[in-house]
Amino acid sequence: MLTAIATVLAGLLGAALIFMGGSAFTTPQAAAGFGIPDTPADDPAFQHWLRVKGMREIACGVSIFVLMLVATTSVLGWYVMVLAAIPAGDAVVVLRSGGPKATAYGVHGATALVMLATSIGLLV
Q1: Distance in angstroms (rounded) separating the CA atoms of residues 74 and 87
Q2: d(Cα 60, Cα 56) in Å, to the nearest integer?
Q3: pLDDT at 16 over 90
Q4: pTM of the model
Q5: Cα dist. 50→10, 22, 28, 58 in Å?
Q6: Interhelix angle for 73-83 vs 110-123, to 10°?
Q7: pLDDT above 90 for 97
């Protein structure tokens, strides 16, 4: 039962990654909610960098679905665990840039914890 719930959570994480990656193309202004102060969301040069980030998020999300189809739950679990380093690193970046602690911990930190919990559920 735990593995089934964790697999569903992994799918939701994959869908969220694809959605967030797509938003880099459709609504780059949403980057201001990432937590880094003075984010130049309207700057065309920044938007190009944001699209690079978006493509990486989409690729990570699609990878989750591929692993759900072709790999064991333990392989998926290890992958999700490794991916948890991304939001953890994002939290550090937000904190080091003087961004709001609520965003660093409440968004990025919480995401990392959900990913870790999901990975543990897949590995047990």
Answers
A1: 21
A2: 6
A3: yes
A4: 0.90
A5: 24, 10, 7, 12
A6: 160
A7: yes
